[in-house]
Amino acid sequence: MNPKAPIDQQTMQTMKQEKLNDEIAPFLQDLKGKSDGFKVPEGYLEDMEEAVFARLKSSGDLGRPTMNLVKRPRLFPWTVRPRTAMALAAALALILTAVWFIRQPQAVQPAQFVSTELTEDDLESYVLENVQEFELEQLAALTAEKTSEPIEKVAPGTPKKNRSTSDEIHPDDLDKILDEMTDEELEQIL
Amino acid sequence: MDLLRSEQTFERGFRLLMSQYRERLYWHVRRMVQIHDDADDVLQNTFIKVYRGISQFEGKSKLYTWLYRIATNEALTHLQSQARHASSSLDDTANLLSNRLKADEWFDGDAVQAKLILAIAELPDKQKQVFNLRYYDEMPYEEMSQLLTTSVGALKASFHHATKKIEAAFLNYEG
Q1: Same structural domain, B4 and B54
Q2: Are B51 and A40 in contact (CB < 8 Å)?
Q3: Do residue B88 and residue B127 come from a single domain?
Q4: Is A72 part of any domain?
């Protein structure tokens, strides 16, 4: 017998019967061969439609507009049902919102770049104008930062006397300045 | 189904639906409630509910699956109402059914067939459905699984338990 040959109706029925017989007791197999004892009045099933429509008429259900089936237009009739479409739209909105939030810091970057272009003088004048807004520790840190900066820039081996900034006064110059000052000026300082 | 979509052709479509499914649904209901008059009531109620609710049928399942579920619910409601009636009287459900079966002119089975019907009637609702679909309709488990939304394994287990209970009922009967 060719295993790929189609199975005819009778063979299929016999196979189903044999499979079922494996599952049930012999007495149930015997009973299955007989009628179950149920009978139906002649013409009962044919008259069923009239009986149902008579009851529908007496209950006033016949011709109710709710029975009129109209195909409701679907949002995406070629692919998905409305609920699925709404879920997809919600998911898309969430993704777009997430992308917008992720891209937010990149949008403010130019402003940060501008702030780095401020000169030291601008910063200094800002600090002086708003000195009351800063804590003492912050001012101290700014001063420390400012004083430490030149030291970092000095190349190793440079003579100490050349390391002074223009604001510092050499002891020799101090004597000279004091000599040049008038008595009134000296009194003001002291 | 297309005939049911227009008000002009709806009645013709509904009559066609009834003529197509009435026999299959009748035997399903009859094996659930056993007595012809009860099956007649249940089947008429089923078709009236289908008529009222057909506009809500969304076509997510097969039409027969939807009809089968409505018919099953109607049959179970009928059986529950009978059980309530039996509990309020001196008779129990099995005795009530036995007496009604004897009096039913549309049952001409012998004592063994009556015993089988009574044994099936004693089964829990789900096992009763599974047994009827497998034993009488010889429905494959895969198809039954879609109809009853139950796994094939669970259906096989239900059928096994049902046959064991029926065998036990027959042993008691013969003893």
Answers
A1: yes
A2: no
A3: no
A4: no
CATH value at residue B42: 1.10.1740.10
Query: Would you call B18 and A25 a contact, using CB atoms and an 8 Å cutoff?
Result: no
Instruction: State whether A23 and B136 contact (CB < 8 Å).
Output: no
Domain count, chain B: 2
CA distance B54 to A108: 59
* Shortest CA gap A74–chain B (Å): 13
Taking residues A36-57, report their average pLDDT: 92
Q: Which residues of B touch A35 (CB under 8 A)?
A: 109, 113
Say whether both B126 and B102 belong to one domain: no
CA–CA separation, A53 and B125 (whole Å): 30
How many domains are there within chain A? 2
Q: Give pLDDT tens digits for B77-106.
A: 999 988 887 776 656 777 888 888 888 999
By C-alpha distance, the chain B residue nearest A15 is B138
Mark yes or no for CB contact B18/A34 under 8 Å: no
- Judge: A37–B5 Cβ closer than 8 Å, yes or no: no
Q: Which residue has the higher pLDDT, A159 or B15?
A: B15
What CA–CA distance (Å, rounded) separates B125 from B59? Answer: 26
- Owning domain of residue A106: 77-115
Spatial distance between the Cα atoms of B25 and B47, rounded to a whole number of angstroms: 10
Cβ atoms within 10 Å, residue B136: 14
What is the predicted pLDDT for the residue at A127?
A: 75
Contacts of B23 in chain A (CB under 8 A): 45
- Residue A85 in domain: yes
Q: Is the pLDDT of residue A68 over 50?
A: no
Domain extent, residue B100, equals: 1-107
Looking at the fold, whether B85 and B167 belong to one and the same domain comes out as no
Q: Does residue A122 register a pLDDT over 60?
A: yes
Instruction: Of B43, B119, B117, give the one whose Cα is nearest residue B78.
Output: B43
Element (H, E) at A165: none
